[in-house]
Every structure is written in structure tokens, then in C-alpha cells.
Amino acid sequence: MAKAGKPAAKRGARQTKLAKIGAGELLTLIDFVRYAVSRFAEAELVFAHGTTDPVAEAAFLVCEALHLHPDQFETFATARVTAAEGRKILDLIGRRVMTRKPAAYLVNKIYMRGLPFYVDERTIVPRSFIGELLDQHFGGDGDEEAGSLISEPRAVESVLDLCTGSGCLAILASRNFPNAEIDAVDISKDALEVAARNVGNYGLQDRLTLYRGDLFEPLGGKRYDLIISNPPYVDADGMAGLPRECRAEPKLALDGGTDGLDIVRRILDEAAAHLNPQGGLLCEIGRCRPQLEATYPQLPLLWLDTEDSEGEVFWIAAADL
Ligand SMILES: C[S@@+](CC[C@H](N)C(=O)[O-])C[C@H]1O[C@@H](n2cnc3c(N)ncnc32)[C@H](O)[C@@H]1O
Questions:
Q1: 168 lines ligand 1 (CB under 6 A)
Q2: CB of 219 closer than 6 A to ligand 1?
Q3: pLDDT value, residue 52
Q4: Where residue 30 sits, what CATH number does that domain have?
Q5: Residue 209: pLDDT above 50?
């Protein structure tokens, strides 16, 4: 039975507060990063939303509090912060530990391929490997040896981003395919509001159109040179064991049904009817490769790796579908 006095929830919240830091105990950016890393380790946080380790996560939060791009961290690592800046950083560290929300939700920002995108809890925190693959394999600034899966990116006239969420992949694609009209679809009104904000921030309203609906349904019979998609693909076991950080994200963005492939199967089954003959489909499926290959043994799926992933994204040419 709870003791009389403060309500139990309030007492619990007070217990999880971080210990007070005395004035002058932490001075430089790197001091605050070290402190944050210790608190993050103590709280056993999970890092899967734009950063994959506590140091990068701490550096990201410190930079955001100081209005610095993460690439500028090293330049200023040993610079001192003001008292007001220090309070702001400590507040972010405290909120990250106590709420367990992804850092991107706390600062309403995420970087992909070095570009900033607005994000909030109406949509998943962008972290798709497709951004890197667009640069590597589709005429971006990446690995020349990797070759291009589309012979002339400037000749690409139409791109579809299915399950667009915050619109990040559609916006990145607009840079790889400078002459393309881009369509982007999501079933979530909330996500599309975030996407519209990002499209506006990048001034792409005239070239990028957002549609609300179920996969290809709002597009009629329209065909594209390229379809990209990072659909929901977490299987039932994965959904049951999601870390708290991921439970802050919309379930609709993650849940791929029993084996994770409910949406992916529909995309594969319907893509041929929406691709031009020389086009192709680039699709992320997480760890579902074994199930997918067992379901479609006849399809010559080309698996593309990135710095942090192996066999989580496939490419298939329209002619092979
Ligand atoms: C994994 S998130 C990807 C978001 C974004 N493309 C990214 O990479 O950050 C999947 C998105 O698919 C959307 N979605 C789920 N089911 C859908 C459906 N049947 N049709 C269209 N979009 C759907 C969700 O609302 C969510 O925004």
C-alpha cells in the first residue's frame, strides 16, 4: 500500500531524476558528452534512431543544444559552454534518460546523409539504409566501383516513395534524380503532416507530391521509373520485444504482421503494374530475408549492403518481376 503524502507517480518520477551537477563541474562540450555517456550506460538506453552508440547520441544532443551541426563537434569539443547552455544540455540528457524517447523526438530533428529533417512522434524516426544506397548505386556521390543500377540517373523522370513517413527518402531521392517528378504515399495522416513540413522546408512542393492511401491505391494506374520503399517489417516476435525507444514510435510504421512481410508481399506482388519497363524496385525489409526468399524463390533479388547493414535491402528490375 502506498504511503500517504505525495502521489506514487510523483515520488517515482523524483527517484529517476539525475543527480544535481554543481556549477563548474562540467565545462567543455566533451565533458558533457562524457557525463551523458555515463548516464546513458547507467540507464541502459537503446540506440537505434540515427545513432548506434552512446557517444554519437550524446554528441548529437550536445550539438543540437548549441545549434551546431554534428560534423562540427570535433572543432568545438574542448570549447567551454555557458551556464545557460549547460542547463539546456543537462535538461536534454535528463529527458533522454527519463522518457527513453529517441533523441530525435526530443530535439525534433534528425540528419540523414548530412541533411536535417524535422521529425516528431507523428512519424517514425528516419534511419533507412536506402539513403546511403541511393548515393552508392544511383549516381550519387558514393562508391563509383559499386556501379549504378540505373544507367542514367538524370534520365529518370518519375520516382515513387511508398510508405514515405517523414518524406525523408523522397526528398533524398529528389537530389539523386534531379529531373524526376516524385510521388510519395503514406496511409497515415499524421506522418503526411510531418512529410509536408519537410517538403516545404526543402522547397520541393512543385516537384514532390504527397498522397494519402493504402500503398498503390491512391495512384491509379500510374507507372514509375523507380520505386523505393521502407515499409513496416517488424515481425510479431519483434513487436512483442520492442525497446522502449521504439515504443515511442507509431505502431503502424513498424508492424509488418506475423512474419513481418504483410506489406512487403503486397508491394512485390503489385510493383510490376506500376513500373516502367527499364525501372526497378528498391525495398528495405530488415531481417526478413530468409522468409522473403522462401516465399519468392523464383525472384532474382539483388541484396545491397551498407556500412551498417547486410542483406536488409533488395533491388529487383521491373523485367524480373
Ligand atoms: C518504416 S516507416 C518508413 C518511413 C520512411 N520511409 C522512413 O524511411 O523513415 C513505414 C511507413 O509506412 C506507413 N504505412 C504503413 N502501412 C501502410 C500502407 N498500407 N500504405 C501506405 N503506407 C503505410 C506508415 O505510416 C509509416 O509511415
A1: yes
A2: no
A3: 84
A4: 1.10.8.10
A5: yes
